[in-house]
Fold this sequence. Notes:
The chain is an alpha+beta fold and 366 residues long. It contains eight helices and 21 strands.
Amino acid sequence: MALISPSRRLRRTPFSDGVEAAGVGGYTVYNHMLLPTFFESPEADYRHLKMHVQVWDVACERQVELRGPDAARLMQRLTPRDLRAMLPGQCLYIPIVDETGGMLNDPVAVKISDERYWISIADSDLLLWVKGIANAHGYQVLVDEPDISPLAIQGPKSDDLAARVFGENIRLLRFFRFGIFSFEGHDVIVARSGYSKQGGFEIYVEGSELGMPLWNALFAAGEDLNVRAGCPNASERIEGGLLSYGNDMTRENTPHECGLGKFCDTQTAIGCIGRDALLRVAKDGPIQQVRPIRIEGRVAPCDRAWPIMAKGQNIGQITSAAWSPDFDCTVAIGMVRMTHWDPGTTLQIDTPEGTIQGVVQETFWI
Ligand code: THG
């Protein structure tokens, strides 16, 4: 593919100067913003992520901020997950669906206070939907995209690196909780979360000016930990079953099809958009669902859905695939009809380079 031409619409991030100096090898576009895809090589990055610690420019995980007396009411309208017990300092993975139960986004919700939430979005223009709902109901809430850019620390040495920059107390932070820590006299929100299964943190950097000072401080502090610039790694996230909105799910899918039924409390999430539709699908159960699929050998990059065929019939599609060095196979995610979703089922997959076979797995790889 030819290079993507830069323009104002394709937003840089507060960390882009650091990413370029670190020798970024490729980019994708996410929420109209640059997101690195690899540095040294996808495989070298993968090995390094699993052994050391990386700093990721995930500024493209934009925040939709809800501020005002109706913030909580609006949040509960937006998601079928029951938010009544959510406390300030907590993060929650929440499906967001339309009136038909179709997935609009799968963000992380961050509760700052009773009247202030961030929705840390995946790749869809959720701000427009949230503004529309807020205005249609006349809610007393301001909905905006503030200048807040997440910077992730990921990998097994994340605690050591974070402790050097934010202090030893950061080790006590629990999964999907955040705390306020100090960096060069600024209060910053740091959560134990991130788009990998290797552990780590996400720093919600408020104010672009703070971006490069923090980036540089993390690299200076982590020299002997072999810290490197990194980014979400396709192989690692597929192994771990982390879904990618726009790839593994779209508005065509319900949360139940995506395996996100466990994050829906549709009975008690009273007033949420899509409730009636989800009550129906929860009762009958989905007829297709996300599955881990193992493919022997290497395949071309999955740049479109690959049809899964059986006896001339389309029974699903592969939505993500990447070579896994640790499992010595291609790991893939597919949406598979119930007739073919049982573990051990062999699938025929139509790729642009010919038909290949895959086998439905019992679980993701980690
Ligand atoms: N962090 C933040 N914002 C994000 C992402 C993130 N926005 C975009 C994208 N990632 C949203 N999608 C996901 C998908 C999975 C997870 C987080 C965001 C995730 N899942 C864990 C899992 O499946 O193991 C934990 C889920 C749970 O148990 O609550 O972390 O990464 N800020």
